[in-house]
């Protein structure tokens, strides 16, 4: 009950159509990358100024990170740097992006809203659209941050928030994946709940999956924290 209520509260606050609560921000990144189709030997562009979790999630899928420079204005991924890298090092073939040097697939871009400062996310989104790349926002530190009056984490296909003890609000440990598409949300819930087919007593699992769903007690704590969110943001 509390998990569903927490997800609904986050949707209402961020304006995201869907939210899937999970055990932490790292598992949220892992699932978001997996649902975009990132797999072994793929490449994912991100920034080097980030917590290690961003790259751990990429590596756990057998993919490799490519690092681009940040902007000195936002401390997040620089659109100029990203565009320059792709123009010089990538090519498109059949609506897919590849690295010239190795012909590896470049699958996604993961900008980080560092310290909650929004990246130039609309500019980054345009570049991703041009190069046929999935956009996943690492908004772990950015609950309450907006860009052009829109909450960060809602510009890309997926956005992730963290509720670790050092974040804007905490659930002890926890995270959430924001997404725009009901089918994506359904798949995320399925994979994060051991891939179990709903049934009264049979245990049948149709996909390799994880036990990543947020526990009810953590969600209850999150709901209590949301009541003080504006105070926390003002203090921050």
Could you characterize what this model shows?
With 236 residues, the chain is α/β, with parallel strands linked by helices. It has helices at 2-14, 25-35, 53-60, 79-89, 121-130, 182-192, 216-226, 229-235; strands spanning 18-22, 43-47, 64-68, 90-93, 96-99, 106-110, 134-138, 146-147, 150-151, 158-162, 175-179. Helix 5 links the parallel strand 6 and strand 7. The radius of gyration is 17 Å and the shape is globular. The two termini are 30 Å apart.
Helix/strand order, N-terminal first: HEHEHEHEEEHEEEEEHHH
Tally of helical runs: 8
Average pLDDT works out at 96
Distance between the termini: 30 Å
Task: For the largest sheet, list the strands in their spatial order.
Answer: 1-11-10-7-6-2-3
What's the total number of strands?
11
Radius of gyration: 17 Å
The profile of the biggest β sheet is: 7 strands, mixed
Which structural class do the helices and strands define? Answer: alpha/beta
Uncertain spans: none
User: What quaternary form is this?
Assistant: single chain
Percent of residues in beta strands? 15-25%
Q: Given the C-alpha coordinates, what overall shape results?
A: globular
Q: Can you tag this structure with a few keywords?
A:
alpha/beta, 11 strands, single chain, 236 residues, 7-stranded mixed beta sheet, two-stranded antiparallel ribbon
